[in-house]
Amino acid sequence: MIVVLFEDGGRRVPGGTTMERPAWAPNDIDLDRPSAARVYDYYLGGSHNFAADRAMADKAMQILPELPAIMRANRAFLGRAVRYLAAAGITQFIDLGSGIPTVGNVHEVARELEAGARVVYVDNDPIAVVHARSLLASDPLATVIEADLREPGKVLGHPQLQRLINLDQPVGVLMVAVLHFVGDEDRPSDIIARYRAAMAPGSHLVVSHGTAANRQEQGARMEALYARSPTPLTPRSAEEVATLLSGFEIIDPGVVYLPLWRPGERTTDGTPAAGYATYAAVAHL
Amino acid sequence: MKQHGHDPPDSRFRRQAAVEATAREWAHIVARGSFGQMSVHDLEGRLSELTTILVESLLSEPFVSRPARDVGASLVAAHFTGSETLSRTIELFDDRLLQALHADTAKYRGRLARMNGALAAGFADALRERALTEHEAILRAALRAREDAEQAMRASQARFRAVFRGGATAIAIGDVNGHILDVNPALIDMLGYSASELRGQRVTDFIHPDDTGDMREIVASLIHGDREHVRMEKRFIRRDGGVVWGRIALSLVRDDEGTPSYLVAMGEDITERHHLQTSLQRQALHDSLTKLPNRAQLMGRIADALDADVGDDRVALCLIDLDGCKTVNDTLGRDVGDRLLVAVADRLSRCVSGSDQMLARMGGDEFGLVVSPSGGGTQVIEIAEHMLAALDTPFSLDRHHLSVSASVGMTERPVRETSASDLLTTAGVALEWAKAAGRGRWRMFDPHRASGQPSRFALSSTLSTAMLYDEFFIVYQPVVNLTDGAVIGAEALVRWHHPQFGVLRPGRFIAVADETGLIVPLGRWVLEHACRQAARWGAGSARPPMVCVNVTLRQCHERNFVREVARVLNVSGLPADRLQLEITESAAMTAASEALDVLRRLRQLGVRIALDDFGTGHSNIAYLRGLPLTGIKIAGAFVEGLRFGADPVGEQMVEGVVSLAHTLGLTVTAEGVETERQARVLRELGCDWAQGHLLSRPGSADRLQNLAVSPERWLPGDVG
Questions:
Q1: Which end of chain A is more exposed for a tag (fewer CB within 10 A), N or C?
Q2: What is the pLDDT of residues B633-646, one digit of tens each?
Q3: Which residues of B touch A47 (CB under 8 A)?
Q4: Strand segments (E) across B403-486
Q5: CATH code of the region A67-223+232-284
């Protein structure tokens, strides 16, 4: 109640929009509700999760048993994309919707090529943020901030981000496996446009995005499952994903299924590409 | 190392081949469950190291399982933890390893089983250890996050309490039906009720009955989710019966499931601001003296009338201008003048009734009445007559009995065919007609009459652009020497070629130009053009004609007028003694010392200065003597008397004037000479020069140039 007393309490109401929450109004901490970050960790075989997360993930895997493989492929794509950006000279990264830190984090991958790479992780899950903060405590060139990527002003204006990232220089912005949690009512195109406006020429945007293309029935069931979670799912087509990237130039091979994005000699299992139900793309300014 | 068994795997080469083949197979198994962060090559390399360790432990004497255990743990450390990685790894070793090593004996099968067991145990322990570590980490993070959240919540609650208890904002929390659950001190102050008196009551019970109308819909729209909060201004009734204005934001609080649970109203007392606003609004739309609506409000009313989609509606505007108010101000003081205006406003108001009529004070002593919709010209005329009659009775203020009359100009038009400025203009024109007709009259605007006769109003509105559009031109009326009939000069007369009213004479617009101040640029323009044109006259002639230019008192008062004249002479090349500036007698008589100084300096330039319209003012002869003049022009009124019959008195007066002027060394010009008799008598009386229709009508500059060099003489036929 206290939250709402101050009008724009950040609560979503039917027909309303999500208002920016005052910085001093606390988020809910509810371990009985699944969190996208912890569910993702469970798909990857991690144990940074609770019963509610595992229950949710198990239901999802009943619908789409390939989910762990998809998530690993997503993680592998993240690694390839960060290596590509680092090779292109990007030394600073913003990972939006970074989730629970796990193997192959952006700063670890980037530093294979550029020892001084600076990384800001952004997530709106307070637990994921606290955990990441403890992991990054001794790293002066990486940090995590608690913010919602749907509020670009808040993210880009965050003092921690401004401390590490020089927006006058090219920056790598990652929206990996997160945009499908941004519904159309939140105008993802406008959100991305606001990040784009803040990015210097030469900057890159890395995107992976869940899709129901070729899997309408599973997609619908998955949407229904996530609709009851705090993070409803909005799968999009390849065309829609490309539209989200308007204003950027999408590099080869364009918007493709995860394993098809510059596969190189990395290891894969034998699942057909379309089975990954997730598009990947890298674009630049 | 001593070899045992019947087929000892003694070949290092064979062992190496077995390791590599196994590692390759193993890499395929591991890759399936990996994150793909290692290349195939790196993965095979890493697994071949692990395979070497396993093979060496398998073949070593005595057999120890510890290395296999460590390899299991290494798999976990390298994140090779896919769900089937372990089982398929063990299958691989079971199926292939001993054959590849050529060691498929009971002894090694036993060892292999123990090795696989140790590998699985190491893997499981490491995985369990990692899971526990991770789980502990996430749990710790969760606890920490919750602590942070709770701390933030406590801080938030403390802030809220501070705002609720100590803030200036009035806050009421109610249930969804509007029953008050809690209020804060600011609200208690605002309404004057105690907290216990307020609890349980409905919020709407305290809203002014006139302001409660839309509350139900507002709350419904909140509950329905159409809006998150509503801002409004409402009046509230205090416990003591007083009324306070509140600016309120009403919000609906929902629980986590989205069910409406509370209504929260926050507001502030804006009574003072509201009163100030109301009074400012009133001031902006009312005349502070008479309390009538002001011009702005009347214009607003006209705009409303014109904006409405009104079919065949008509609208009327009356302008009521009081005569004689200025005299009252000047003689009895501003205070009495103001009270008179209030009294007049009061009487006029009584003539106005109904919501279709609005009386306003337009400013000064002018009132306006708009009738919308208008019931036709007759209705408006009735009101006008009523108002004129209402002013018939003198006003008694203190000991004064003051008579006031008014002129009323009206216009009455179909809404579709008019505009605000058209209404004002036409009513203004009608007002001038009414004034011209004498006091206490009304006139209704008539477009036919208007098109023939330009009003001052119509002229003043177009005068300012006339210069821009080059609508002025100059004609020259020759001045003739009465002795020999020679053209000795010409008076420059300005004409206005009005796009609507045709060619206008100065009598029609000079007064308007003087009032509006446009006389100054106009005068400058005439002076410059006349001098330029006159400079070309009579080239080669012994006595090229001079040009006479009228100057108003106002021009004399202009700074730099003397310098301007000098500049014009210089630029045009006209010798100074061929320019005669003419100033009216009345102007010269009232001229202040600065203006006199101007005349003296002009004279010093060599410019001729004549007193125009001599005889119409009350000339003080002694004063005349002090003026730096070169000549006088006798007013037409004197000359007119000499037209036909004998007029001994008139003739004597002219003779006296001529004699006086000659005594002072001034030339005498007679204006308005129309008959031969006038010309003859004037010459006999000693008048030097003359101008008038008899001699020549005004003409163009070119015509004058021709006259200047022509031997033709303008002398009355019977003279000579």
A1: N
A2: 887 777 877 776 67
A3: 130-132, 134-135, 138
A4: 405-414, 442-444, 472-481
A5: 3.40.50.150
